[in-house]
Amino acid sequence: MNKTGAFKKVLSMLLVFVFVLSAFTASSVKTASAAAKNPEQEIMPCFTSIGSALYCITIDGITATVSGILNSQYNTNLQITLELQKYKKADGWYTVKMWAEAAYGTLAELSARATINIFCDYRLRAIFKADNETCTRIMYPD
Asked: What's the mean pLDDT when you consider all of the chain?
């Protein structure tokens, strides 16, 4: 093989490498921009400690029931804080009741009830902590 043949071979290998690299880069940009344009697709953070965080608020008459479950991917310090929040036009949302549960392991659960005023609006603010990660979620009753 002469010098020009070897040069063409190296050049073609380099072009194939650049083409493959640009194809991967373009596909990830295309996926991210498609997700950003579609509001139904939510980009979720990737947690290393928190496996799942479930939370719920239900209102039945004058009783509000709140609950939260936190699963971690390994044994660690866990904490759940549930805040029952009430809405006032002048002040916005503020906490009327708060419950907290701390545990060590892979599972923490918390459930509580409170008497409420049926003429006011309420929501749940749930804060989940596992190791050095914190996840805050808001839920409105149906």
From this structure: 83
Q: DSSP string spanning 42-87?
A: ------SSEEEEEEEEEEETTEEEEEEEEEEEEEEEEEEEEEEEEE
77, with CB counted inside 10 A (0-12, 13-18, 19+), is middle
Q: What 3-state DSSP class applies to 93?
A: strand
Confidence (pLDDT) at 56: 97
111 alpha carbon, distance to own chain's centre? 21
What's the mean pLDDT in 52-68? 96
Given a contact cutoff of 8 angstroms between Cβ atoms, the answer to whether 85 and 64 are in contact is no
CA distance 47 to 22: 29
In sequence order, which residues have a C-beta less than 8 Å from that of residue 20 and are 6 or more positions away? none
Q: Report the half-sphere exposure of 83 (CA within 13 A, side-chain side).
A: 14
| Neighbouring residues of 56: CB distance < 8 A, sequence distance ≥ 6 | 65, 66, 67, 68, 124, 139
> How many angstroms separate the CA atoms of 136 and 59, rounded?
21
Q: Is the pTM of this model over 0.70?
A: no
